[in-house]
Amino acid sequence: MEEISLTIKNINKSYNEKVVFKDFEITLYKNKVNCILGKSGCGKSTLLNILSKIIKNDTELYSEIEDMQISYIFQEDRLIDWITIEDNINLVLKNNYKKSDRENICKKYLKEVGIYEYKEYYPQMLSGGTRQRANIARAFVYPSQIIIMDEPFKSIDISSKKQIMNIFKTIIQKEKRTVIFVTHDIEEAIYLSDNINILGETPTVSKLFFNDKSKFNKELIENSI
Ligand SMILES: Nc1ncnc2c1ncn2[C@@H]1O[C@H](COP(=O)(O)OP(=O)(O)OP(=O)(O)O)[C@@H](O)[C@H]1O
């Protein structure tokens, strides 16, 4: 199947005298899991924030994802603590789906992430892993074309991490979404991603790009960061 590229260029960002990006350019692939790896401080969060317009690019940005809807999965879950899991999901559904469809959509995604039986629980009653499952459901419930994930599995304990990554993998294989995935964990990157962009140090350049999943190589990636 032909890959559709999404180019973002003219990325420029300095914080005072610290130049993070100077005419940086990145190509993402539509409906793929696009991973971004790089040393701490190379600008991964800055890049995500520019793409999602949380911070402003210093110059005019050329972005082929400019008008696309984005949902997010962060390391911390950002669920609202004083409403139930179901209501957290319903908050997203309310503005995007007809009332008659909402219950079924909520049920479908809570079942997919394996927490339907917790729908009436409040987030603080649940483990970090269960909350992150709710977070994943919420990101997919939103009719976004792009899902931005910033270290989504970092604070999940080892025993549930693999399970949650598998849930994500199963859903993303069925859904058409373009994922932009930042992580420090190379094994996680190899397991979940369709391509891997390695960023160099600031002012940041694209150092390496791997897009053949069958040739992902842990050692090579490790040595390239
Ligand atoms: N608001 C800010 N003010 C000043 N400098 C900043 C600001 N935000 C980021 N920086 C600097 O910009 C550079 C890139 O930061 P950024 O957080 O984007 O990197 P990162 O690759 O996401 O790092 P990490 O992997 O540690 O999360 C770093 O040198 C950081 O100190």
From TrEMBL:
One of its GO terms (molecular function) is ATP binding. Keywords: ATP-binding, Nucleotide-binding, Transport. SMART domains: AAA. InterPro entries: AAA+_ATPase (IPR003593), ABC_SmlMolc_Importer (IPR050093), ABC_transporter-like_ATP-bd (IPR003439), P-loop_NTPase (IPR027417). Gene3D superfamilies: P-loop containing nucleotide triphosphate hydrolases. It holds the Pfam family ABC_tran. Residues 6-221 form the ABC transporter domain. PANTHER family: BICARBONATE TRANSPORT ATP-BINDING PROTEIN CMPC, SPERMIDINE/PUTRESCINE IMPORT ATP-BINDING PROTEIN POTA. This is NitT/TauT family transport system ATP-binding protein.
